[in-house]
Amino acid sequence: MTQIEGKVRFGVGLGADTAPGDLPAIVDHLERSGADSVWFSELVYSPAVDPFIGMAYTLSRTTRLKAGTSVAILPGRHPVLVAKQVASLAALAPKRVLPVFGLHSALPAERDVFAVPRGRRGAVFDESLELLRAVLSGRDVSFDGEFFTIRSADVQPVPARPVDIWLGGSGPAALARIGCLADGWLGSFLTPAEAGAARRQIEREADAAGREIEPDHYGISLAVAAGEIPDDVHAMARRRRPDIDPSELIAADWPTLHRRIDEYVDAGLTKFVIRAVGRGDREAFLERFVGELLPRQN
């Protein structure tokens, strides 16, 4: 298997079918097994736990497992309130909070929930990130922007160690935003070649902005089936990426996932959020995740 400098890490992504009652067993299993992380998606109209609630629950129940969002929507939330949530989590569980933010929901039905001025979502995102960072890094913050005006914001406690803010997205504007404003990138629905090209573009954007992103702060969310990609998942992937065969984006089985991970590592990615697709046994998936992937961590 491919070797790479930097920390290769694997976490479990939870989907829409993960109800609140499922969470204790999942979190306990991952903590006990030595998994790196668990990730909560923004799925408002589903039984899934809210990402920030899920992170708080996980971090309070564990001592080493990290918790992240994959991804939470930032435009449509007030960034000072988000900063308070992130700062609180970081104080409760230092070095175990992994916030990843996105531009809008992948589900059209949920996009109206995160209301911003029409046609200005990207601009709101940029300003939200700027204000979020300012409030997380200092006290008595005043800010005059197009969308937010704040006087003497004083979110406490200011994290003793800066919290890395990662972003999702893969379009040209998203990659430029990541290079200019983010500490890392979590992609999805990209082939290894596309992911490698995205990483290189982010690096160019960061260099142009006088910034540098840590070389092992590039990751991707991947799906694995239990032997065959279900028809509904195949159709969803086709709608999401009509230009790509779904089998290139979703691994039908674990051997395929291993080969695909090698290709992503070769492309420069080291962080992987693995989610199950289909209606297989969750316990069996977690056991396979632990047995198959944790030995690949370095």
Structural class call reads alpha/beta
User: Would you tell me the overall average pLDDT?
Assistant: 95
Task: Characterize the main sheet.
Answer: 11 strands, parallel
Q: Report the radius of gyration as a whole number of Å.
A: 19 Å
Number of helices: 9
What is the molecular shape? globular
Strand content: 15-25%
**Strand and helix order:** EHEHEEHEEHEEEHEHEHEHEH
Overall helicity: 25-40%
What is the CA–CA distance across the termini?
12 Å
Q: Which ranges are low-confidence, i.e. pLDDT below 50, for 5 or more consecutive residues?
A: none
Domain Luciferase-like: 10-239
Keywords: Oxidoreductase
Pfam family, one: Bac_luciferase
Organism: Mycolicibacterium goodii (Mycobacterium goodii)
Topology:
Blueprint lengths: L8 E6 L8 H11 L3 E4 L10 H11 L4 E4 L2 E2 L5 H14 L4 E2 L1 E3 L18 H17 L3 E4 L4 E5 L12 E2 L4 H10 L2 E5 L3 H17 L9 E7 L6 H10 L9 E2 L2 H13 L4 E6 L5 H12 L5
Parallel strand pairs: 1-2, 1-13, 2-3, 3-5, 4-6, 6-9, 9-10, 10-11, 11-12, 11-13
Antiparallel strand pairs: 7-8
Helix pairs in contact: 3-4, 5-6, 6-8
How would you characterize the overall build of this protein?
Helix 6 runs parallel beside helix 8 (254-266). The two termini are 12 Å apart. The radius of gyration is 19 Å and the shape is globular. The chain has helices at 23-33, 51-61, 79-92, 121-137, 172-181, 192-208, 231-240, 254-266, 282-293; strands at 9-14, 37-40, 66-69, 72-73, 97-98, 100-102, 141-144, 149-153, 166-167, 184-188, 218-224, 250-251, 271-276. The protein has nine helices and 13 strands. Helix content is 39%, strand content 17%. The mean pLDDT is 95. It is of the alpha/beta class and 298 residues long. The strands form two sheets. Strands 1, 2, 3, 4, 5, 6, 9, 10, 11, 12 and 13 form an eleven-stranded parallel beta sheet that branches.
